[in-house]
Amino acid sequence: MFKRLIFIFVINILVFIWLLPASAQDVANSIQEQYAEVNSFETDFSQKLTNAASGESEQREGTICYLKPEKIFWHTTSPEEELLISNNNVVWDYFPQDGVAYKYSFQERFDSKTMLEFISGEVNLKQDFKIENQGQDPDFSDWIKVELVPKDPEPSLVKAHIWLEPKSHLIQQVLLVDFFGNKNQLTFEDTDFNVDLEESLFEFAPPEGVEIMEGQ
Fold first, then answer.
1. How many H-runs (helices) and E-runs (strands) does the chain carry?
2. Is 9 helix (H, G, I), strand (E, B) or coil?
3. Residues near 8 by Cβ (< 8 Å), separated by ≥ 6?
4. Which residues, including other chains, have CB under 8 Å from residue 152's CB and lie 6 or more apart?
């Protein structure tokens, strides 16, 4: 369950993968202006999930593709394969090793209003978040660290940190924390913007013999 729910935490931040200014007072305006120019992106990622209760961590790697509006292809390749696809109406979460595919309606899967606003590009950062520029972080290659705290926290997201490359201000890393203290650290590599993505990438047909679990 922890693996599946962590997807919700990350999508809140995915649309931030664009140019951001160093000044915190400009972040909100810049994201909303820049987002209008981002129709798609493709990125490799490495992800560290830490469970607060057990202290256990898991390292994951894979690829994420995004096509506006609300189409997501999330392919985890290690330590085990997982494929999560959203195509506006249906969300599939497929675990080949287990032979199980979870099917949700879009509203069932994404029941967070804040998240829906983010992936549709309609989020209002000034209204919904307290934003603080914490300057360059020597622990992370002197990347610029920005903190986002929801004014009305939800269980899935109570705090986020974003690290930006100082010259380009491109996002390099994101750390999300939920109500229980679970941490989700995502590092982006080789990100390409406004790439040509086939619509078929966001369609999924369960292979024969796969067990389908709906709305759970």
1. 5, 12
2. helix
3. 109, 110, 112, 115, 156
4. 128
Beta-carbon contacts of 145 under 8 Å, excluding residues fewer than 6 positions away, are 133, 134, 135, 136, 137, 161, 162, 163, 164
Strand ranges in 51-128 using DSSP code E only, listed in sequence order: 57-67, 71-78, 82-87, 90-95, 100-105
What letter does residue 89 receive in the DSSP assignment? Answer: S
Secondary element (H or E) of residue 14: helix 2-14
What pTM value is reported for the model? 0.78
The dihedrals phi and psi of 125, each to the nearest 5 degrees, come to: -65, -40
Beta bridge partners of 13: none
Specify the residue for token string 């606003």: 117
Given this model, what pLDDT does residue 30 score?
56
One-letter amino acid at 32 equals Q
- Cα distance between residue 65 and residue 60, in whole Å: 16
Angle at 51 between CA 46 and CA 55, to 5 degrees: 105
Residue 5 has pLDDT above 80, yes or no: no
DSSP letters, 111-161, are: --HHHHHHHTT---HHHHEEEEEEEEEGGGTTEEEEEEEESS-BTTBSEEE
